[in-house]
Amino acid sequence: MSLDFRPASGALADLKLLQISIAGAVRHVRLFRPEKRNAVNDTLVLQLRSALELMPSDVRAVVLSGEGSHFCAGLDLSELSERSVAEGILHSRQWHAVMDSIQFGRVPVVAVLHGAVVGGGLELACAAHLRVAESGTFYALPEGQRGIFVGGGASVRLPRLIGAARMADMMFTGRVYSAREGQAAGISSYLVPAGKGLAKGIELARKIAANAPATNFALMHALPRIAELGQDAGLLMESLMAGISQSEPEAKRRMKDFLEKRGAKVKRRR
Ligand code: 1HE
Questions:
Q1: DSSP letter string, 201-246
Q2: How far is the CA of 77 from the centre of ligand 1 (A)?
Q3: Is 143 tagged catalytic?
């Protein structure tokens, strides 16, 4: 692939429903089941989890994308029909574990979206820390029309991006959001022309990888929890995290760099 990425070797190369490549501190994980529009079967769930857990310490950010004409068609519906209630609950919990390994893993994940981002595909996108959408992206929760409910974390994560009322509308009525609507509603953080998503995602991942690890840790693990707390406990947790991060040698070096005119200024956008 372009942009200096080389294919991963060893156990990662054996994950056949993923295509994993590496460039410096950025790992690119591509869903690789294009003939089924990257529909997520049980094998893909397990492979995704392995890809996120088998993470050498030099990897500092991940880009997640989908091969072919769509990011992800959601749950592989062909595996759904024969499950009992108990099996259904466990299956959903398995999805939750994968989504948690993305949201609360070791490194930030940038999802690059194009084409269909539907059902479990939208749940996957919501577990990432940033979303870059190409102009042809569309979002839907067809669970409502398939007679089921979400099971991969959307009822918790999606309302935090767009609100419960919008999510309910998507499921009640089958409403499809365009890329532009998804950007306005808060699903994506960046909207780029068709074909430009990966380059943008990699550019963002490289910036994120260059942050101090303590800052990325705070953004991934402390911020979402602080956002769930009352003011008192939230402010206390913020102070604890502030104290920890600023005492890191890396933070001291960066602040000294700025004071001694080596660090970058914040630039006005043109
Ligand atoms: C699939 C799936 C799938 C495609 N499970 N096989 N998700 C959905 O309800 C979305 C269902 N999929 C679609 O609406 C469309 O396939 C797409 C809009 C995503 C893409 O359309 P298109 O025209 O590019 O592809 P296609 O011809 O519909 O599909 C190509 C093949 O992929 C075809 O198989 P083939 O053997 O006939 O070639 C499709 O059957 C197959 N395919 N999507 C299984 N989802 C943790 S709970 C999460 C709950 C959910 O995610 S529910 C929502 C499921």
A1: HHHHHHHHHTS-HHHHHIIIIIHHHHTTS-HHHHHHHHHHHHHHHH
A2: 8
A3: yes
